[in-house]
Structure formats: C-alpha cells, structure tokens
Amino acid sequence: xxxxxxxxxxMSQKDSxxxxxxxxxxxxxxxxxxxxxxxxxxxxxxxxxVDDGFQEFMKTVGECSARSRRQDLESARERRMQAEAKLKxxxxxxxxxxxxxxxxxxxxxxxxxxxxSWRDLESKSEEDLISLIEDLETARQIRTxxxxxxx
Amino acid sequence: MESSVSRETREELxxxxxxxxxxxxxxxxxxKVWKSKHxxxxxxxxxxxxxxxxxxxxxxxxxxxxxxxxxxxxxDLTDFLMGVISSLAYHExxxxxxxxxEHLDPDVExxxxxxxxxxxANYTSIAPSPEEAVEQEExxxxxxxxxxxxxxxxxxxxxxxxxxxGGKTKPQAIAEDTRISIGHVYKARxxxxxxxxxxx
Lengths: 151, 200
Hints:
By secondary structure, chain A is mainly α. Helices cover 71% and strands 0% of the residues of chain A. At the A-B interface, helix 1, helix 2 and helix 3 of A face helix 1, helix 2, helix 3, helix 6 and helix 7 of B.
C-alpha cells in the first residue's frame, strides 16, 4: 500500500480490501484495555440486553456442563461393562494351553473333514486358541440351529 | 459417547469468570456479525455465536461436535473462545452461501461418489464463487473508503486505520507501528467502532 494524492488507499497487488476488513473487524471486536464493565456498557449502548443475555448464557453453561458430565458417566458405564465382559471370558478360559488344544480337537472331532494337527495348535498363542474355540462354538451353534430348523 | 473434553478442562470452563469473559466474547462476535451483514453474507445473532462456541468447548455441540482447547496454543480461555467464534462465524457464512447456491440452482447435478460429495461440500462451504469474491471485495472497499472519509481529519484515526489495513490488529502492535500511545489507540478504536456502527 502507498500514499497518493487522493489518500492512502491505493492497493498494492497483494493487498485485498476483504483482508483489510477482516483486520478491521478483528481490531474493532477486541476489548484489550477495557474493563468488563466498560465493555458491558458499550454493548448496552449498542442495543444488547446484556442482563438477560448473560443470564441466558449462564443457563447454557449449566446445561453444557451437565451434558458433558452425563457423557462421562455413560462412557464410564460402557467401559465398566466391557471390562466385566472381558473378565467373564478370561474366567471361562482359565485353562492351560494343552487343555485349550484338547478342547479344540474335541470340537473338531465330529467333523472328520475339519482337523488341525497338534503341532499347528502348539504354534498358536493362547489368545488365538481362545478365539478359535469361540469361532468353533459359534459355528456349532449355527449348525445345530440349522439342523433343528430342517427337522 | 465419551465426553470429548477432559475433566480438568470442564472444571476450568465451569469455574471460569464468565462475567469477565462473556462481554468480551459478545463484543468479538458482534464485530464478526457486523462484517458478514455488511458483506451481505447473512445476519446471525452474536449471542448465539457465543453460546455455540461455549457449547463446543464443553464438547456438547450439536451432534456431539466439539472444539478441543489447545492450551499450548491458547493459554487464555478468552482467546481460545474468540478463535472458535471466528471459525463459527466463517462457517455460518459458508452455510448461508451454500443454501443460497442451492436455492438459486436447485437442479444442479450432485456428484455420486460420497467422498467427492463430501470434499465438494466442504469446498463450496468455504470458497466463494468468482462473482461472490468480486462482490465481497467491492463491498469491503466501499466500507473501508467510507470509514476513511468519515475519519476525515482525525489524524490518529487515519494512522490507526492505515496500520490495520497493513495487517496489524492488536492495539499494542498498532501503538508500536504508529508511535501513538496505547491509550490513544484505544480511544481511536472507540471512534472507529462508533463510525462502523453508524454505517447502515
């Protein structure tokens, strides 16, 4: 920007009046150097009902706080339920690796087409074995249900 | 759904000195609304903008929307909330623009790909059309020229305006730039505000 005879509002290529207006509203909307009471008085003179407005605002703060606390409680409840469910599974599968492998073999035995060698099972982690048992049990439940539906 | 604000932040918000903060937020929102009104981009209630900003800070915005308070970037709560207000004002303007576009051209074919649609939705909510950009620029020019005219022989006011148009927005920076005392910059701000509020 540079001065000319008419005034200083001569644009250089990179300046934009919109950017200037942004700066102007940023400046005009600032309240540095003013007390809160002074700002309130100004707002009042601009036509704001600051007394009602503030009460309304504090009501919103209270509602938001309550909503945020409710969300935390719900979240804590969800976490507790998940932890309880996990604990139940752990309790149910409190067995040695050999016992888990034997359970898998037993679950597979009715179906001769499905078999897993002991060595294959040994290479799996306990968590993998538990997952496999759960999958096999689910598959068996589905098959049993299908069988009874056919009958 | 987990609250998106930490307990510490929530307690800070609950115990904030709102009597001190609220008027400053309303002042900031009022200036943003003044701008969008004069650029004919919509007319929002500044009090709604302030309430929406605080709801977002609490993590209690519409549809679970939230704004996380980055205390490293904004150690001061008022500054953080002013940033949220600016962003909200900007996006509200974008929404109005989008609604206006849809109203003008209701049969416009929408892209099928949802990803593309989302990208375009964000794009159209932010970027004005070339015609709108020209109109905004012209309206901004008229407003600033009007302010310059009304300031007339108010030399300090003119200098402050020059610093603002040069990119300074904080009174301290303007005082340093113009070598006007900070007290006089505050007084010039009062005069500028009065002029702005008198522009129809």
